[in-house]
Design goal:
single chain; alpha+beta; 4-stranded antiparallel β-sheet; 4-stranded mixed β-sheet; 7 helices; 8 strands; 37% helix; elongated; disordered N terminus
């Protein structure tokens, strides 16, 4: 077995001091650093991926194998165990917003896992809606207002403009790197850049939007932006 003894922060990873057992001998304070995707994705499903291990300790392990002190299969399993423990420590050490969504599977995904493939229709629909909203920003004269989930803004309000200048990853890019990256973010919860911007609307569209959010007795389920103070009757 491998046993974590101490750990300290280094760059984006965590240095773990572990014990490597070589038959009757032990290598104490074996340094293992898990860096995950920083390692590269070529061997992401190979045992031990994502971990950097102290070379001097590995040399000692090879010498023990050469001397017949320990079987090579045992050393291999010990090294894999070190990497898996380092990965667990790395996942536990992330910031709360990352720790909520980061898993052993998600950090190995590049937008091509079964969950991502299953979510492509939903993601493409999201992208289409994103593009529709961005396209409307080119014709502000047609859209005097903007709506979010529960607020009304003028189309010139800086709150309404947030996100409108970001180009979405399109489905017709051949499934390129940007598309896969955003698909991964969409599926695995890293959604910092996936929020839809406000929808620019015409006068008629605003009227329908307000009607959908007005109760039978006149109660409103929306509010006016306090920054731009749009001139919209509240009745």
């Amino acid at each position: 077995m491998t046993t974590p003894t101490t750990r300290s922060d280094l760059y984006r990873g965590v240095v773990n001091k572990m014990i490597l057992r070589l038959g009757a001998r032990e290598l104490a304070d074996m340094a293992v650093l898990f860096v995950g995707p920083e390692m590269g994705m070529q061997r992401r499903y190979d045992p031990g991926w994502g971990a950097l291990i102290e070379i001097a300790g590995v040399v000692r392990a090879l010498e023990a194998v050469a001397a017949g002190e320990v079987p090579v299969d045992q050393v291999r399993q010990e090294l894999v165990d070190l990497a898996e423990r380092a990965e667990g420590a790395w996942l536990a050490d992330q910031l709360p917003e990352v720790a909520e969504v980061a898993t052993s599977s998600s950090i190995r995904c590049v937008g091509d896992c079964p969950a991502c493939e299953a979510a492509r229709p939903e993601f493409d629909a999201h992208n289409d809606e994103y593009q529709r909203r961005v396209d409307r920003a080119r014709h502000l004269d047609r859209y005097p207002f903007a709506v979010s989930k529960s607020s009304i803004h003028t189309s010139s309000c800086h709150m309404a403009k947030q996100g409108l200048g970001i180009s979405p990853a399109r489905a017709d890019d051949g499934g390129g790197l940007l598309y896969r990256h955003k698909l991964r973010s969409f599926v695995h919860g890293f959604r910092g850049d996936m929020t839809l911007p406000c929808l620019l609307v015409t006068d008629d569209e605003l009227s329908r939007w307000r009607a959908e959010r007005t109760g039978p007795e006149g109660g409103r389920r929306y509010r006016l932006c306090k920054i731009c103070d749009p001139h919209v009757p509240l009745v």
